[in-house]
Design brief:
Length: 524
């Protein structure tokens, strides 16, 4: 009788354990007591990202409430998207009035390119610091401080007089402080509010505002300069809107526990040094290779975003369709049209990229980097045609700009999603920061300046004419398609490793792969 009783009790215990191990909203036995919040500390003797305690400690439990309500989470994402829009508007208002600035300050192409380079350099140098702080301290407070600095320095740059160009350069560098704090930490907050399909959609919406904000930056800068007759007003609109964003950030944006989405609101904590964080990321092949692809994408988009409106204006001058700009404000048509194209391709491309990712992810496990590779490699012929057809047909040039930007826009949201699912929650801010730093350092930090230097060097080889000014910039832009090919190759190599790296993160968060399910997919 005792033996039969023992077998019955053992059978019931095994049954309870199986229920606990189920990753999809399993129901625990009433006799089971709640498990305490767990840590992803590096002192456990296990590989980083593994829990010291049992798998069941991170399994969803019946009746558990999320750390942040769904309504609050959606409002928080809306606030973050609004500020992201303003960030990229501010970044490209300078490009929208670049021809006017060159006339006002009497500067050449390489000096004009330095405005974007110093901004990106401060941005990338500070990103690792904010990544380190973001993995350890309150992310919301850090973003509030950074955004405040951004507002002050941004509006200050609009009051610089003609003899103080160096001050404009300095203030543009300080604007990078605010963007470094926000761009590093905002995606990690979204990653801690949603998982699975919802996360992909929210990340897509957030990253759609990169091209939308960039396009509106051209339109705002050029439009305000034309309406007021003063380029400075183009730099004052976004700081005014930014005050509203700061207030919304303070009162409406949540700061969820790290890893809250994957752990049903409990969150995870890390006990590791910065060096351990970096070494973990360097061993993550998908992270490293996708970051190299991001670098190529940043180089390409940074150069095109900064120089394309000026290139189009010079093309019209070379064809005799537009008079040369000799006094401010210059004709804003190229900036306005290019801005509108950027907005439309950003929305359509971002949504299309996320849609393709969700459609193929369950069918092809490495679909995301393949989509990115297709976008990069597909844009290359469009860029070549854009560069050479500009001297013959402006309408045809805009068609191929549209196609090229559409293909490039497939990547932004997909790349952000890749980082969130191949890196453990307690190291995502550091991962974002290092990707930003490396991507901008070798990407768009130097590409506007590099193309400006190449353009000036080619231009100096012959007597200066408006026609030769156009061709010198055209030849410098030929660097971009070759960088696009390189980026596509990096994404193709990423596709070889991403499946295993994603599974490693899912295992560390308690995914049960025995039955083919995992935590990251539970809320799709």
């Amino acid at each position: 009788m005792n033996r039969e009783h023992y077998k019955y009790k053992h059978h019931q215990q095994v049954k309870r354990e199986r229920l606990i191990m189920e990753p999809k909203g399993s129901v625990m036995s009433p006799d089971d007591t709640p498990m305490p919040r767990r840590s992803l500390g590096s002192d456990s003797g296990l590989h980083y990202g593994s829990f010291v305690n049992s798998l069941a400690s991170l399994t969803p439990k019946a009746g558990e409430k999320p750390a942040v309500s769904p309504r609050h989470a959606y409002i928080g994402v809306a606030v973050l998207c609004y500020i992201n829009l303003l960030n990229y508007m501010e970044r490209y208002t300078i490009a929208g009035v670049l021809s006017t600035l060159q006339t006002f300050f009497d500067i050449n192409d390489s000096t004009a390119g330095s405005l974007q380079t110093v901004f990106i350099c401060s941005f990338l140098l500070l990103a690792p610091l904010f990544g380190y702080l973001g993995d350890r301290y309150n992310r919301k407070y850090i973003m509030i401080g950074g955004l405040s600095v951004w507002l002050v320095t941004s509006v200050g740059s609009s009051f610089v007089t003609k003899s103080y160009f160096w001050l404009l350069v300095l203030l543009r560098a300080l604007v990078g402080i605010g963007e470094a704090s926000y761009s590093t930490l905002a995606p990690t907050i979204i990653g801690d509010l949603f998982i699975g399909g919802k996360r992909s959609i929210m990340v897509c919406v957030f990253y759609i505002f990169i091209p939308v904000g960039s396009g509106l930056g051209y339109i705002t800068g050029a439009g305000c300069a034309t309406l007021t007759g003063d380029w400075r007003w183009g730099l004052r609109i976004t700081p005014l809107l930014g005050v509203v964003g700061l207030i919304l950030l303070v009162f409406l944006c949540p700061n969820p526990p790290r890893g809250a989405a994957e752990t049903q609101g409990e969150g995870v904590t890390g006990q590791s040094s910065y060096l351990e964080d970096v070494m973990y990321l360097l061993r993550n092949k998908s992270y490293v290779l996708s970051s190299l692809g991001v670098t190529a994408l940043a180089f390409l988009t940074g150069a095109l975003a900064f120089w394309m409106p000026t290139f189009l204006s010079r093309a019209q001058v070379a064809q005799g369709l537009l008079s040369p700009c000799t006094k401010e404000p210059c004709d804003p048509t190229a900036s306005l049209i290019f801005g509108a194209v950027t907005v439309v391709t950003g929305i359509v491309g971002g949504g299309l990229g996320t849609g393709l990712s969700r459609w193929f992810r369950d069918k092809v496990s490495n679909a995301d980097p393949l989509i990115c590779a297709a976008g990069m490699l597909g844009s290359v012929p469009c860029l070549f045609i854009t560069i050479f057809v500009a001297s013959a047909s402006i309408p045809a040039t805009y068609v191929f700009i549209f196609l090229g930007e559409l293909l490039l826009s497939l990547n932004w949201a997909v790349l952000a999603d890749i980082l969130l699912y191949v890196v453990v929650p307690t190291r995502r801010a550091t991962a974002e920061a290092l990707q930003i730093t490396f991507g901008h350092l070798l990407g768009d930090a130097g590409s506007p300046y590099l193309l400006g230097v190449i353009s000036d060097a080619i231009g100096d080889s012959k007597p200066a004419t408006h026609h030769w000014s156009f061709h010198s910039l055209k030849y410098s832009l030929l660097v971009c398609p070759f960088v696009g090919i390189l980026g596509g190759l990096f994404f193709l190599i990423t596709s070889l490793y991403i499946t295993e790296d994603r599974k490693a993160v899912q295992r560390s968060l308690g995914g049960n792969h025995h039955n083919g399910k995992n935590i990251v997919q539970t809320n799709q």
